Amino acid sequence: MNGRYVLCRPRGGLNDTLCRIDACWGYARASGRELWVDGNMSGMLDCLSRYFVPPPGMTLAPTPEWMDGLACVPVALSGRVTRYAAEYDPQLRNFIDPASGVQVTFDARAAHAEPLLVYEQCGGGGRGIGALAQMALQPGIAREVRAKVESLGEYTAIHVRNTDYQTDYIGWFREIADKVGDRIVLCTDDRGCQQFAQTIWGERLVLPSELPDTGGKRLHYNRDLDRYATNVGTLTDLFVLAGARQLLFRKTNQGVVSGFSLLAQALHADKTTARRLIGA
User: Fold this and answer.
1) In the CATH hierarchy, which fold is given to the domain comprising 5-128?
2) Is it the case that residue 209 has pLDDT exceeding 90?
């Protein structure tokens, strides 16, 4: 350690979380800083070291109290890095410190003299696989995920997001019903979607996990669920999608592609990274 840090507190679902880690990792490496990632504010609502093994120079752990003693950017957070509570600003479409109104980020184009740079933002895209490529899954999770993927044989995988974003899966499933092969694996955050899919494909359908009835609430940022079981289930779904012969998804009714679909697509295309992560 050289006493210079980037503190990343990623917000959003799994893909957003990994995209923000990758962005901060790039800056930390270029500026000779250690990256400290606190995942407790992410959609996983947990310490990320329970799921991932970081590379040298990256720590996955809650924000330590000694960081309160470091001069930091944003300056408004000095002395209270462990105590501020960021809020979403709908105009900025990202997170601010409500006490000062300052966005919780730093200028990644500049060099900074302060020993601590604090970053608590959301934002997705296609760079989530960059963070995965730097890390490993915890061995027990890797074994569990690998066993699930290998048990499925050859299959077509479908991803549907239908909680905070909704997808017209009923019309879509009917459209593709006879075009997807003899073994279909459905990964979704909506139990109603699972139940409808069973009426379309019957015994041809495999459900990799049993979903709780969340009443339409999303799986990430849901404190009513067992976070470890939910997060492992999410990672399992990700690698099930990546391991498919064919991967299918579509835009949501809001006109966007789920970040989880983008992450699965990237892993599906990069079989080397996917197989390394689960030890296949």
Assistant:
1) Rossmann fold (3.40.50)
2) no
In the CATH hierarchy, which fold is given to the domain comprising 138-278?
Rossmann fold (3.40.50)
In angstroms, what CA-CA distances link 14 with 5, 19, 36? 23, 9, 17
- What residue spans define the domains of the chain? 5-128, 138-278
Q: pTM to 2 decimals?
A: 0.95
* Dihedral in degrees, nearest 10, Cα atoms 68, 70, 75, 77: -10
- Per-residue confidence at 169, pLDDT binned at 50, 70, 90? very high
Torsion (CA) 211, 213, 216, 218 in degrees, nearest 10: -50
Please name which of 38, 220, 28 lies closest in space to residue 134, comparing C-alpha atoms: 28
Token duo for residue 21: 């880690």
| Helix and strand numbers, DSSP H then E, in the chain | 8, 14
Residue 274 is which amino acid? A
**Interatomic CA distance for residues 251 and 271, integer angstroms:** 24
Same fold, 5-128 and 138-278: yes
